[in-house]
Amino acid sequence: MPSNQNSASHSAQSSATGDLQERDLPQKDIARPQPELRPKVSVTIPTRNEEENIGACLASLVSQEGVGFEIIVVNDASTDRTREIASSFGGGNVRVNVGVNAGVKVIDAPPLPPGWIGKNNAVAAGARGAAGEWLLFTDADTVHQPGSLARAVAEAEQRGAALLSYSPEQKVGSFWEKAVMPLVFSDLAAHFEPAMVSNPASRVAAANGQYLLISREAYDAVGGHAAIAGSLLEDVQLARNVKSSGRPIFFRYGPDAVFTRMYRNFAQLREGWTKNLALLFPDSSRLATLRTAEFIAISVCLAVIVVGIVMGWGMVALNAAVMAILLTGNYMSRVRRAHFSFGISLLAIAGLPVYAYLLRRSRVYYKSGGVTWKGRSYAGNGQNISSSGAPAIKSADNASAENQKPSDKKIHEFSASR
Q1: Closest residue by Cα to residue 168 from 69, 233, 252, 273
Q2: pLDDT at 37
């Protein structure tokens, strides 16, 4: 009899508690774990046809130690085995304490709303269900170093940063990757100097969406990805929003935390940088001209050296050699900032005309109509792209976007002060 009474009392208490929660708490809070059960970090990975990468990424994340975390994979209408591979990593358990296996929760991205970019829609879906105090947004083509998650949180807290972002170590395999990637990342290093990005007194803001850690408080305060729904450069825009809100951000090269191989062939590389270069570099036409001129100058010097030797013009060859050394030295001092090896950096001289082509291609595509990425077309308003690099973007993946009012279209201003 006492046991029946206790059971009835317990059931009544549970029922009353459940009624209270349903009646008095917001629905979004009911879905999240209680504070003492919440993970420290929620890792969100947007995926669209990433069967080649997602396995290695998740393997490196589920083995993290030193911090409680959960992993949310958002499947964005993949047509390959992405969802199947991600689901094989577990049943959605949360790693609250060290030593408890971290499962992987796989959800499907909702239908793409008008004016939204696919990645932003997927990431926002993951963030809505995330329970962590910190949110880590990372890409499926990343691999995370052991213990990096705990170290990243510790670094963010130690520096008092509301947003911390690492630029991953870039792995390259094919000739085209080696020829182009050092050139892009060296110019990025010049445009977005980490010291300036991390300086609260500077207006320069940047982040790398391959590893972006942000506090839940800051994310909600600036409107999250809903505030930048139509931005193809969502990582930089989110960093700008956080910094302009008065919250500190921190950015650095992070080979100790994460590495990635962004592209595996020229077709992928061309599509990816066509999407990004005109947005990253508002002066892309001028930059293309400079890189073309640099290639021509070095090539001419090398040709003159050869001709001078063949013709017996010793002084001509010597002068050309001196000029070639000076030009190459200036080139190497810039490109080595991208953290590639000496040999790959030197090889990238051959990629200068290809890089110039990609810079011009990106700008032309935005001016003439738009770009394609992950099977979706994003149309840019050619009349609105200017020296500020600010095309209007809309997704052709959702036909209703065509009927937006002008006031609803997303105009992406990319400040030249960056």
Answers
A1: 252
A2: 54
Of 169, 162, 168, 250, which Cα lies nearest the Cα of 206? Answer: 250
pLDDT along the chain (418 residues), means of 10: 42 39 35 57 96 96 94 96 92 44 82 93 96 96 97 97 98 96 96 94 95 98 96 94 97 97 94 93 94 98 96 94 97 96 97 98 88 79 36 44 36 32
CA dist., res. 52 & res. 205, Å (int): 32
pLDDT for residue 91: 55
Same domain, 110 and 239: yes
- Dihedral sign, Cα of residue 348, residue 352, residue 357, residue 359: positive
pLDDT at position 26, please? Answer: 35
State how far the Cα of 191 lies from the Cα of 338, in Å rounded to an integer: 12
Among 264, 289, 308, identify where a domain stops: 264
The CA–CA distances, whole Å, from 331 to 132, 297, 323 equal: 44, 11, 12
User: How many domains, in total, are found in the chain?
Assistant: 2
Structure tokens at 152: 């990243």
> Is the C-alpha dihedral spanning 74, 80, 84, 86 positive or negative?
negative
Would you say residue 185 lies in a domain?
no
- What is the C-alpha to C-alpha distance for residues 160 and 152, in angstroms, rounded to an integer? 12
Residue 142 lies in a domain: yes
Q: Which domain holds residue 287?
A: 280-405
Q: What pLDDT score was predicted for residue 192?
A: 92
**257, 306: one domain:** no
| H and E: helices and strands count for the chain | 15, 14
Verify that 399 and 289 share a domain, yes or no: yes
The whole model's pTM is what? Answer: 0.80
Burial of 43 (0-12, 13-18, 19+ CB in 10 A): buried
Distance CA 406, CA 240 (A): 24
What pLDDT does 42 receive?
95
One domain, residues 122 and 217: yes
pLDDT given at position 379:
72
CA dist 6 to 12, 15, 197, 207, 338, Å?
10, 14, 60, 56, 67
Asked if residue 21 belongs to a domain, the reply is no
Within a domain: 238: yes
